[in-house]
Design goal:
The structure is a single chain. This protein has 3 domains: 31 residues; 159 residues, Bordetella uptake gene, domain 1 (D-Maltodextrin-Binding Protein, domain 2, 3-Layer(aba) Sandwich); 97 residues, D-Maltodextrin-Binding Protein, domain 2. Helix 2 links the parallel strand 1 and strand 2. It is 46% helix and 19% strand. By secondary structure, it is α/β, with parallel strands linked by helices.
Length: 330
């Protein structure tokens, strides 16, 4: 009888503790946010991720009636920004607009990564994917992807390409393109697309992968030239740009993605509130068209469960790609 009573009291204690934690989390969620919120962007200002983050910051500011500040922490293939986010207080007041490098790539490139993408972050909402356009400096005597590949084959190692950083998705996807087409180029890493495109326009590098939206001003000014789009269909923002498949290179469907994460220890009710609010903003037709699709992105709009499955598939793909390329950045 005493054992039964002891077990019953223990069960009541566990239940009471769980109830108090749930209630506390619920109260936190009701009062969230209680101070300014920052969105860490691990890329330089002016790039695609930065523009996207600022669009969300404006809408979250209106929804939450609290300042939402974008903080750029570029460098080291997003590691600087990711580490800052991972070490932030797990109270929902620091978010990270992550990408494939942060969550799906770095763990396969660095043995001493200062954060664990699986342990340190909770997935909130996956916004969109972005196919690349293949752009070159106009000094190159090429007007199509086929002509570029033929030129690169004649000049192995002489053409330099810029990426968003060592081990970034643009680095890996360019190496994948090179392997698939039988060319060899010299890699010059930068801190983000906002640095790569000016370098390309100056002629510091001769080729790069970039998102459509950040490249439009330089394309209109004639300072860079577009050869192809790495998607299965043409993009409404650039309807005259052929796909890689149309250019004679099927299978070059290369894309990055962008999604919000938070420190993993953030209370579940707060995570649920943020995820729900991000979904509410993202699914508004005006926001989707003006902020997401206008930037050349393909909406994914994935809540946490779908986001997690997407990330699992991405990690498997990049793990194999990095192994085949024999890349290690430690």
């Amino acid at each position: 009888m005493k054992n039964i009573l002891r077990l019953a009291l223990r069960a009541i204690g566990v239940w009471a503790t769980a109830l108090s934690l749930f209630s506390a989390g619920g109260l936190h969620a009701q009062s969230f946010p209680s101070q300014p919120v920052r969105i860490i962007v691990a890329q330089a200002a002016g790039g695609l991720v930065d523009i996207l983050a600022r669009g969300y910051a404006t809408e979250l500011n209106r929804l939450w009636d609290q300042p939402v500040i974008v903080e750029n922490r570029p460098g080291a293939n997003t590691i600087i920004g990711a580490e800052a986010a991972a070490r932030s207080a797990p109270d929902g007041h620091t978010l990270l607009l992550s990408n494939s490098a942060t969550i799906s790539i770095n763990q396969f490139l660095y043995k001493k990564l200062p954060y664990d993408p699986e342990r340190d972050f909770a997935l909130l909402y996956n916004i969109a994917s972005s196919a690349y356009i293949i752009v070159v400096n106009p000094s190159l005597p090429v007007n199509s992807l086929r002509e570029f590949i033929e030129l690169a084959k004649r000049k192995p190692g002489e053409i330099a390409y810029g990426s968003f950083g060592l081990g970034s998705s643009s680095h890996l996807e360019t190496e994948y393109l090179s392997a698939r087409t039988g060319i060899r180029m010299t890699h010059i890493p930068y801190k983000g697309v906002a640095d790569v495109l000016p370098a390309l326009a100056r002629g510091d590098v001769q080729m790069a992968l970039a998102g459509i939206q950040p490249a439009i001003p330089l394309l209109k000014a004639g300072k860079i030239r577009v050869l192809a789009l790495t998607a299965s269909v043409r993009d409404p923002l650039a309807p005259d740009v052929p796909t890689a498949a149309e250019s004679g290179y099927p299978g070059l469907n290369l894309a990055g993605w962008f999604g919000f994460v938070a420190p993993a220890a953030t209370p579940r009710p707060i995570l649920d509130k943020i995820s729900g609010d991000l979904a509410q903003i993202s699914n508004r037709r005006d926001f989707k068209e003006k902020t997401i699709m206008r930037g050349g992105l393909v909406p994914l709009l994935q809540p946490p469960e779908q986001f997690a499955e997407y990330v699992r598939e991405e990690r498997a793909r990049y793990s194999l790609l990095i192994k085949n390329l024999n890349l290690n950045l430690d």
